Amino acid sequence: MTSVSSPSETTTPAVDTPTVPTDAAGREMPDFAVPAPLASHGPARIIAMCNQKGGVGKTTTTINLAAALAEYGRKVLIVDFDPQGAASVGLGVNPHDLDHTVYNLLMERGTSAADVLVRTGVEGLDLIPANIDLSAAEVQLVGEVARETVLSRALRDVENDYDVILIDCQPSLGLLTVNALTAAHGVVIPLECEFFALRGVALLVETIDKVRDRLNPRLEIDGILATMYDARTLHSREVVARVYEAFGDRLLYTIIGRTVKFPDASVAAEPITAYAPDHPGADSYRRLARELVSRGDAA
Ligand SMILES: Nc1ncnc2c1ncn2[C@@H]1O[C@H](COP(=O)(O)OP(=O)(O)O)[C@@H](O)[C@H]1O
Ligand SMILES: [Mg+2]
Predict the structure, then answer these.
(1) Domain 45-294: top CATH class
(2) What's the CA-to-centroid distance between 102 and ligand 2, angstroms?
(3) Ranges for the AAA domain (predicted)?
(4) Percentage of the chain exceeding pLDDT 90
(5) DSSP labels for the chain?
(6) Binding site membership of 227 for ligand 1 (Cβ less than 6 Å)
(7) With a 6 A CB cut-off, is 266 part of the ligand 1 pocket?
């Protein structure tokens, strides 16, 4: 791994060596191999997509990373853990029509994950949907015994059926997010490449540290994912440089560019890998999938 040096100190390649592709922080870009097919599935590595700021790309990353992993033959489950239900809607599931969602899974002892799980249009990708009912859980859980571990226990039934479970968190650090962090092995933190991106990240990291200390010793930060990157602006490059300065190699090599294809794909209720399979946006999430698998952060 490269050392945590200032991103401006990139090494100049010798005259006769071909220029190596670099990431936005100036690091030499590794060639992440296509993951080998799996002979069998599970147990899942559980990843929480987390940032208490809204609009940073959590849901977009959850859907498209999941779809890219599924393309590589992984069995993937998305847990929509935001009462807005954006991950459900983005996969073509209208959560208002559903009687059984993640809310029932959390709050009813007789309901198991298999009862609330739905198949999506993407082969190998299933979903536990959410709708506005989930907002009540935040309040109702407060009175429960072991209120932080409810999701973790609820997922135990299906953990062995999947290679990766992605939890799409809501934009808050409340009890639902603490449940996601308690259930997870890793956290991916999407950060929008804009000026105030780092504001609030210290508090998020502190929350992750507390959950690790008190509830879930296995919890790791898998990486920080720069999203909505615009290579044409100095601004985007500065933000990435700043994130690299602050977090070093926790910054994932993969950077997600800003493109209207992502909102377009959400309107079509498809992952970008299905909506525009040859678009660079689809390739960037495939690269993210390969990066996480090659680091051992996904199966
Ligand atoms: N890389 C991107 N380029 C352009 N728009 C994006 C990108 N990623 C997400 N978006 C759009 O930005 C909005 C917020 O993204 P979303 O994934 O819903 O964020 P969050 O779940 O963190 O609130 C959505 O309209 C989404 O389509
Ligand atoms: Mg979201």
Answers:
(1) alpha beta
(2) 15
(3) 45-221
(4) 84
(5) ------TT-PPPPPTTSPPPPB-TTS-B---PPPPPPPSS--PPEEEEE--SSSSSSHHHHHHHHHHHHHHTT--EEEEEESTT-HHHHHTT--GGG-S--HHHHHH-TT--HHHH-EE-SSTTEEEE---TTHHHHHHHGGGSTTGGGHHHHHHTTTGGG-SEEEEEE-SS-SHHHHHHHHH-SEEEEEEESSTTTTTTHHHHHHHHHHHHHHT-TT-EEEEEEEEEE-TT-HHHHHHHHHHHHHHGGGEEEEEEEP-THHHHHHHTTS-HHHHSTTSHHHHHHHHHHHHHHHTTS--
(6) yes
(7) yes
